[in-house]
Amino acid sequence: MKKTTLLFVLLGSIPFILSAQHPLQSNLNFFRAGDVIVKQQVEYKDPGRAGKKVLWDFSQLSAVNEEYTLDYSSDNDTVITGTEHLTRYHYALQNDSLLLWGFDNQTTKLPNIQPEVLLKFPVNYGDTIQSYYYAHGKHGNRLEMEAMGSVETSADAYGMMILPDKDTLKQVLRTRTVKYIAENTRSISDSYYAKLKEPLFIPPDSINGRLRNDSVLFVVETFRWYEKGYRYPVFETIRSWEQQKKNERNDENEFLATAFFYPPQEHYYLDDDEENSALLENEENDGNTVIDPWEGLSYNFYPNPVRTTLDVEMYLPKPANIRVQLRNVTGIIELEENKGSYPKGTCRFQLDVMRMSTGSYILNILLEDKLISEIIMKL
């Protein structure tokens, strides 16, 4: 029963210049009634690292469902409803905060008595917002449902993205949302109707207590990638798992990992989105001068923590010979490989770390006179 309920909750050429990240703004990125988005469900891929000048290469992903429609409507001036997969999600913009007020479909109605705060506009790289929520509703006419927990959204990365249609976006800002859910279901009784008349307010301390003490929690991690000039995300990944607490150990049982690609040319709202259209037009007419020969360098690596194989992807703004080191915390080189010479453009390679000991390592990527250093964890 819990897993079924949670599924409703979830639900060109390479440019030479990589410009600085852009902020998300309510007038540019809040939902609008009448907008229709056609998404493609694609294979899931690890979102990779956080930070600056990240490369996300999604060009190799295959479509799972090529037409997955999301449309927005409104019956009043305050609430925008997004409908997808036969489920309606209810949003509002209040004091520059994007709120989620719950969802409903043919079998389930779960309004948020205390809303989830998903974003606080404007959103700049490095910003983080956390909120607590409480929802009370029903499944069919037999089961009372309660859900409470926390939601944290951070703008954790920006960089360059290569889309499944091979188009490239160069001013991408990524947000990461992690939602923890403690859930109860019981047969509908008089208490259900009493709560409808006098809704409860659950203080944050009580919600934190539930999250600490429940033996089973649901966790949903959503990454969204936004490009300058587009109102809605151009890519999204969703991963969810059941977190079981056993003997002071958290075991994870993953039961969903999927991704959605929003082809920019199929965003039906573009023709009348004058503010974003103006940004796109200005971008096309904007000339840039390159001073740093490494301007545009972007990279990614995953998974982290890693057990067997670390995947590395890079965009090189000029040809380079690549050498890689893994050093332990004392500075001793545990692994060193010369990956050879690569031309300008994207490149990929792997590191076999299966035989290395568990612990933290410094990943050094040496490109001629350029050094990239990152921390990885070996499981």
Report on this structure.
There is one protein chain. Strand 8 and strand 9 (143-162) form a beta hairpin. The chain is mostly beta strands and 379 residues long. The protein is globular and about 70 Å long. It starts with a helix and ends with a strand. The protein has helices spanning 2-10, 26-29, 190-197, 204-213, 274-285; strands at residues 36-42, 51-57, 63-73, 79-84, 87-94, 97-104, 108-120, 128-139, 143-162, 168-187, 216-227, 235-246, 249-261, 298-302, 309-316, 320-328, 333-342, 345-352, 359-367, 370-378. The strands form 3 sheets. Strands 1-3-4-5-6-7-8-9-10-11-12-13 form a 12-stranded antiparallel barrel. It has a 4-stranded antiparallel beta sheet with strand order 17-16-19-20, with no helix packed on it. A 3-stranded antiparallel beta sheet has the order 14-15-18, with no helix packed on it. Mean pLDDT is 88; it is low at 1-19. It contains 5 helices and 20 strands.
